[in-house]
Design brief:
- The protein has seven helices and twelve strands.
- By secondary structure, it is of the alpha+beta class.
- The protein has two domains: 2-104 and 254-359, no CATH class; 108-250, Immunoglobulin-like (Sandwich), CATH 2.60.40.
- The strands form three sheets. Strands 4, 8, 9, 10 and 12 form a five-stranded antiparallel beta sheet that branches. Strands 5-6-7-11 form a four-stranded antiparallel beta sheet, with no helix packed on it. Strands 1-2-3 form a three-stranded antiparallel beta sheet.
- A hairpin with a 5-residue loop joins strand 5 and strand 6 (139-150).
- Helix 1 (2-25) runs parallel beside helix 2 (67-85) and helix 6 (300-319) runs antiparallel to helix 7.
- This is Kinesin-like KIF1-type domain-containing protein.
């Protein structure tokens, strides 16, 4: 996908620069690329979204940003860093304006489960304990789900009741309950959680109660449905899973905030007078941080070659069932391509040109 490759080429240098600024300013967060499939987001269209994950290195809280949201934050980071380099005592803005900070109350998608409803077409009860998968396909706990066919009094139907072919239900009324009793083993960083879903043609999501203070929440959710069966409903039950999203808010960490306030990164005004050699060394370090990765541009004539290599990485990852690509793999591609470009232009550039440390993602 050409658009996906363009997004990767654009975002990788920005993420590299954001990580360098975060380290220099002592913000204790790290950014990385996340390739998120539409299935992981509970969407029907088959498209992979390029997003950016921000992870706090101490409390391990994570947030996902869209491409546009991250780019906006990155420019705010640059402004903060410029103020820091100029010795502005007020460079460290309040938390609510800090582009390196996100409140723990922000809603975060823990993961999704896909409930296949074919048994409902035969009016057979379904009881499942399903793995909650995040965008990488990694288990984030388990969710208990039940689908119980009922009679018009909302009592469970008798075991003798049997449908040989779901098409027999067309034009008849069916009654059933969707029950979400509990979840187990959610990640420790979550302070509260709840579930959301849309069934069939519903436009608005149905939400369970919010449960706080446990990673083994008891949602005790029950929703009753009644439909006059149509072919569209039969096709939905037979072909499309019910996607249940598990959302949560993460635990705050006041200790981390206090440490950052009491031990901020030094500005130019805080630095003691240094010897000439020390000044030279400090200047070189600051220069390394400030070097933008975008300056290491790749000629237009070589972009096609780079795109083919990135596409190869994507295809290999998909063939292996992976939903993410290691940042180092992508950075190595960019560095290899840059090395090729440098070699081609060696006649006009010094042979001992150094690469800024700020351009390397750890």
């Amino acid at each position: 996908d050409m658009l996906l490759q363009e997004d990767l080429i654009q975002l990788l240098p920005m993420i590299n620069e954001a990580n360098a600024m975060s380290e220099e300013l002592g913000k204790k967060v790290k950014f990385e690329i996340a390739l998120v499939s539409s299935q992981a987001l509970g969407l029907e269209h088959e498209k992979t979204e390029v997003m950016v994950k921000m992870k706090h290195m101490e409390n391990e809280n994570e947030w996902m940003f869209s491409r546009n949201d991250f780019i906006n934050r990155k420019y705010l980071m640059q402004e903060m860093y410029a103020n820091y380099m100029q010795g502005d005592e007020d460079w460290d803005v309040p938390q609510e304006r800090d582009p390196f900070w996100e409140p723990p109350e922000t809603e975060v998608l823990v993961g999704t489960v896909h409930v296949y409803l074919q048994s409902l077409g035969y009016m057979i009860e379904l009881q499942e304990n399903l793995a909650i998968a995040d965008y990488r396909g990694t288990d984030q706990g388990h969710l208990s789900v039940e689908v119980r066919p009922c009679n018009e009094s909302w009592d469970d139907i008798e075991e003798e009741y049997f449908i040989d072919n779901p098409a027999e239900l067309i034009d008849r009324k069916i009654y059933f309950k969707l029950i979400i009793p509990f979840a187990r083993g959610l990640p420790q960083r979550f302070a509260s959680s709840w579930c959301k879903y849309k069934f069939f043609l519903e436009e608005k999501s149905t939400q369970t109660q919010v449960v706080s203070g446990t990673i083994n929440p008891e949602y005790k959710h029950e929703n009753k449905f009644q439909y006059t069966v149509t072919k569209q409903l039969i096709d939905y039950i037979a072909e499309k899973p019910l996607v249940i999203e598990i959302w949560g808010t993460q635990k705050g960490d006041s200790k981390t905030s206090k440490q950052q306030k009491s031990s901020p990164a030094k500005t130019a005004k805080d630095t003691k007078p240094a010897k000439v050699n020390d000044k030279k060394e400090t200047a070189n370090k600051n220069k390394e941080i400030k070097v933008p990765v975008q300056n290491s541009s790749i000629p237009v004539t070589e972009v096609a070659s780079l795109n083919n290599k990135i596409q190869g990485l994507i295809e290999n990852a998909q063939a292996s069932g992976q939903s993410t690509i290691e940042i180092n793999q992508l950075v190595n591609l960019l560095n290899d391509q840059q090395s090729t470009t440098t070699a081609n232009n060696s006649s006009s550039k010094p042979a001992d040109t150094k690469v800024s440390k700020a351009c390397i993602i750890q």
